[in-house]
C-alpha cells in the first residue's frame, strides 16, 4: 500500500530531475560560454526538442492528475519553445492544443470537438477561465505566450488584434502576483526561457509588426501611435531602433522629411548597425536635393556594408525566440531591406560623376568593376536590386574616365565592349513598339534569351565614346570613322508599330524617356553631331551642315548640334539663318532631365566648344532678326 502511495511522487521527482537536466544542459551549451555556430545551435535545438518531447510522452502516459499537471505544462512549454525556435509551428501548436485540452479535463470542463481550430479565441478564454487564479494559471499563461509567439511568427496579426486585451494582460499577470504564486519552491521544474522576458519581447514585436502593417496600408497616423508606445517599452536596442526607423518612415509618408531624419538619427544613435535607417536618410536627402549629404550617406553605407559579416555565436542571455523569428512579415522586411554593397557602390559612383566629383566617381566605378570581376563578389545578396549589365557598367565607367580626361582608359573599356558584342550583332533588328504599361527600358529578349537590341545599342554607344575620345585628342579622321560606325549600326534598327510594316524610327515617335527608342534616337543625334563637329575642324562645311541638321532631326534637344549648326551656317555666309538657329537652340526647353539617362548618353563636355557670349555678340552686331 505504501509503495503505491509513493510511486507517483517518485515518478514526479524523476521527471522534474530529467527536465531540469535538459534545461541546464541547454543553458550550458548556449549561454555558458560554448562557442556554437548556427548549424550547431540548430542541432542542439533539435536534440533538446526531441528529448523534451520524449519526456512529455512519459508524463502523458498516465491520466491527467492535478499533481502532475504543472510539470506537464512546464515540459510542454520547454518543448514548444524549442519547436518554435526551429519554425516548427504546427508541431508546437499541436502540443499546445493537446496539453490545454488535458487541463480542461483536469477541471472537468467540456469543449466542442477540435475547439482550437474552430475558434482559438473562445478556446483560450475557456482555458483561462477554467484555471482562474489557481497554481496552474502561470503555466497556462506561459503556453498562451507561446501561442502569441506562433501567431506573430506566422503573421496572424488580425488574430492577435482580436485577442489583444487578453494578450496584453498576460504581461501584467506574469509580472506580479500570479507569477510569484506559481514559484513556490526552488525544486520546481526549470524553464528554457524566462516567460517574462518572452512577453516583453512579444509586446514590442507586436507593436512593431502592427505599425509596419498599418504603414504599408497607408495608415501612417495609426502606425505612428503604435510605434510611439513601443519605443518606451523595455527591449533590446535593435528593436528600439526599429521603432524609431518605422516612425521616420511614417513621417516621411506624411510629408515631414525633417522630422523623419530626426527619427532616423535616433535609430542610428540607438543601434549603429541599423543600416536601413542610414539608407532611408539617404533617400530623404535625395528627395530634398541635398546631394552632398546624400553622397556622404552612400559612402558611409557602402563602407559599413563592406565590413566582414562573420557569424557571431549566440551571446549569453540571448533568447531562444529571436526578434528575427517574430518579425518576418513581408511589409516589415521590405522596410528593413538595404541594397547590396555593390548596388550602393554603383549609386555612389554615378552620383559623384553627375555632381562634379568626377575623380571620386571614377575610382568608385573602377572598384565596382574590380569587385564584379572577382570570384566572391563580396556584398551581393539575394533580393538586392539588380545591377546594370556589365557592358552598361563599362560604358558608364568609360564616360566617367573621359570626363576625368583619361581618354586612353575610356578607349580600353570601349574596345572591351565592342570585342564582346560585335560578333553577336544581327544584320537587322526590329524594335517592337513598347506597350504603355511596360516599364521604361524594358526589353524583349530573342528566342535564345539574348538582348539583341541591347547589344546593338551598347556597341553603338562604345563607338560613340570612342569618337568622343578621338575628338578630345583632336584626331578628327578617327573621330569621323568611329562616329560613322556608331551611326551605321543604328540604322539597322527598324521600328514595328502595330498594324504597320517596320520603318526607320524618327524623333516624333519617341515616347518615354529611357526606352530603347529614346536611346536609339539620342545615339543617332549624338553620333551625327560628333561627326559634323569633326568635319568643321577639317573645313568640310557642307558635310558638317548635313550631319548637324540630321542630328537635330533625330534629337531636337541636342544643344551642341544646334550651336554648331549655327556656327557652320555663319561660316557659309548664311548669317541670318545662323542667328535664328542659335536663338532657337537657347529657347528650346528640354522635355526631360539628363540625370535620368545613362551618363554615356549625355552630351560630351570635352572637345571643341563654342562660347555662347561670343555668339550673342555676333547676333548683336548683326542687328535685329526680322
TrEMBL record:
Alphabetical list of InterPro entries matching this protein: FANCG, TPR-like_helical_dom_sf, TPR_rpt
Coiled-coil positions: none
Gene Ontology biological-process annotations: interstrand cross-link repair
Listed Pfam families: TPR_8
Signal peptide stretch: none
Entry superkingdom: Eukaryota
Record-level GO cellular component terms: Fanconi anaemia nuclear complex
Entry protein name: Fanconi anemia group G protein isoform X1
Organism expressing this protein natively: Gymnodraco acuticeps (Antarctic dragonfish)
Amino acid at each position: 500500500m505504501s509503495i503505491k502511495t509513493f510511486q507517483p511522487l517518485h515518478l514526479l521527482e524523476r521527471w522534474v530531475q530529467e527536465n531540469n537536466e535538459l534545461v541546464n544542459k541547454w543553458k550550458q551549451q548556449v549561454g555558458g560560454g560554448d562557442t556554437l555556430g548556427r548549424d550547431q545551435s540548430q542541432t542542439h535545438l533539435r536534440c533538446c526538442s526531441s528529448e523534451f518531447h520524449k519526456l512529455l510522452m512519459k508524463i502523458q502516459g498516465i491520466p491527467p492528475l492535478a499533481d502532475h499537471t504543472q510539470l506537464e505544462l512546464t515540459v510542454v512549454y520547454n518543448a514548444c519553445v524549442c519547436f518554435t525556435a526551429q519554425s516548427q509551428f504546427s508541431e508546437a501548436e499541436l502540443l499546445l492544443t493537446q496539453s490545454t485540452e488535458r487541463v480542461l479535463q483536469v477541471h472537468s470542463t467540456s469543449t466542442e470537438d477540435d475547439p482550437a481550430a474552430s475558434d482559438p479565441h473562445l478556446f483560450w478564454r475557456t482555458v483561462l477561465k477554467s484555471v482562474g487564479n489557481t497554481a496552474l494559471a502561470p503555466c497556462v499563461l506561459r503556453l498562451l505566450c507561446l501561442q502569441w509567439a506562433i501567431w506573430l511568427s506566422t503573421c496572424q496579426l488580425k488574430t492577435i488584434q482580436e485577442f489583444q486585451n487578453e494578450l496584453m494582460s498576460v504581461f501584467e499577470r506574469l509580472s506580479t502576483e500570479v507569477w510569484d504564486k506559481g514559484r513556490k519552491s526552488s525544486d520546481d521544474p526549470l524553464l528554457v526561457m524566462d516567460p517574462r522576458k518572452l512577453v516583453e519581447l512579444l509586446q514590442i514585436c507586436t507593436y512593431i509588426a502592427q505599425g509596419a502593417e498599418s504603414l504599408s496600408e497607408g495608415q501612417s497616423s495609426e502606425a505612428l501611435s503604435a510605434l510611439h508606445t513601443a519605443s518606451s517599452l523595455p527591449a533590446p536596442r535593435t528593436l528600439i531602433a526599429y521603432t524609431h526607423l518605422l516612425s521616420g518612415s511614417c513621417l516621411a509618408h506624411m510629408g515631414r522629411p525633417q522630422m523623419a531624419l530626426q527619427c532616423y538619427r535616433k535609430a542610428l544613435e540607438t543601434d549603429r548597425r541599423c543600416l536601413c535607417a542610414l539608407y532611408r536618410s539617404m533617400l530623404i536627402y535625395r528627395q530634398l536635393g541635398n546631394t552632398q549629404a546624400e553622397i556622404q550617406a552612400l559612402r558611409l553605407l557602402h563602407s559599413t556594408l563592406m565590413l566582414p559579416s562573420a557569424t557571431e555565436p549566440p551571446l549569453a542571455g540571448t533568447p531562444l525566440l529571436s526578434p528575427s523569428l517574430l518579425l518576418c512579415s513581408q511589409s516589415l522586411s521590405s522596410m528593413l531591406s538595404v541594397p547590396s554593397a555593390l548596388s550602393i557602390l554603383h549609386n555612389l559612383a554615378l552620383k559623384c560623376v553627375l555632381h562634379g566629383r568626377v575623380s571620386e566617381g571614377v575610382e568608385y566605378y573602377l572598384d565596382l568593376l574590380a569587385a564584379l570581376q572577382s570570384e566572391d563578389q563580396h556584398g551581393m545578396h539575394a533580393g538586392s536590386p539588380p545591377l546594370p549589365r556589365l557592358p552598361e557598367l563599362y560604358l558608364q565607367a568609360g564616360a566617367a574616365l573621359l570626363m576625368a580626361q583619361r581618354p586612353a582608359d575610356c578607349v580600353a573599356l570601349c574596345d572591351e565592349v565592342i570585342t564582346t558584342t560585335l560578333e553577336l550583332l544581327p544584320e537587322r533588328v526590329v524594335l517592337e513598339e513598347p506597350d504603355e504599361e511596360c516599364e521604361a527600358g524594358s526589353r524583349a529578349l530573342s528566342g535564345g534569351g539574348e538582348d539583341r537590341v541591347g547589344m546593338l545599342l551598347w556597341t553603338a554607344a562604345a563607338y560613340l565614346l570612342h569618337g568622343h575620345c578621338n575628338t578630345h585628342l583632336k584626331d578628327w579622321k578617327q573621330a569621323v570613322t568611329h562616329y560613322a560606325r556608331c551611326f551605321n549600326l543604328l540604322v539597322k534598327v527598324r521600328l514595328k508599330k502595330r498594324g504597320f510594316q517596320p520603318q526607320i524610327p524618327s524623333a516624333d515617335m519617341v515616347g518615354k524617356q529611357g526606352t530603347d527608342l529614346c536611346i536609339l534616337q539620342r545615339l543617332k543625334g549624338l553620333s551625327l553631331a560628333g561627326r559634323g563637329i569633326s568635319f568643321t575642324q577639317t573645313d568640310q562645311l557642307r558635310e558638317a551642315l548635313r550631319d548637324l541638321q540630321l542630328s537635330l532631326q533625330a534629337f531636337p534637344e541636342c544643344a551642341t548640334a544646334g550651336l554648331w549648326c549655327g556656327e557652320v551656317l555663319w561660316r557659309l555666309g548664311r548669317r541670318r539663318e545662323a542667328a535664328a538657329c542659335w536663338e532657337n537652340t537657347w529657347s528650346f526647353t528640354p522635355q526631360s532631365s539628363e540625370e535620368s539617362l545613362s551618363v554615356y548618353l549625355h552630351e560630351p563636355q570635352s572637345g571643341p566648344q563654342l562660347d555662347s557670349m561670343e555668339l550673342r555678340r555676333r547676333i548683336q552686331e548683326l542687328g535685329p532678326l526680322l
